[in-house]
Amino acid sequence: MSQKLPNDPVMLLSVLNTKLRDHYKSLDELCLDMEIEKKVITDKLSAIDYIYNEQRNQFE
Predict the structure, then answer these.
(1) DSSP SS3 for 38
(2) Cβ contacts of 15 within 8 Å, gap of 6 or more
(3) Which residue pairs, CB below 8 angstroms and at least 24 apart, start in 36-39?
(4) Of 3, 4, 33, 46, which has the fewest CB atoms closer than 10 Å, so is most exposed?
């Protein structure tokens, strides 16, 4: 996981949803900018039953 993001899945969820809401138009844009693989994020959050909703641009 990127040093810019928390390792704890619940904290990661909060940080990512805030970043998506305030700074990025998509998860792909966030991943590109933060230089992290989308699969790493989606796998970590799916482990706590959250998936990315493209239409809402957030994990839910």
Answers:
(1) helix
(2) 5, 6
(3) 36/1, 36/2, 36/5
(4) 3
Determine whether 9 is exposed, middle or buried from the number of CB atoms within 10 Å of its CB (0-12, 13-18, 19+).
Answer: middle
Residues 4-25 have pLDDT tens digits of 899 999 999 999 999 999 999 9
Q: What is the DSSP letter of 24?
A: -
| d(C-alpha 48, C-alpha 50), whole Å | 6
Which tokens in the block code for residue 54?
A: 């493209």
The model's pTM? 0.91
Place of tokens 């998936």: 51
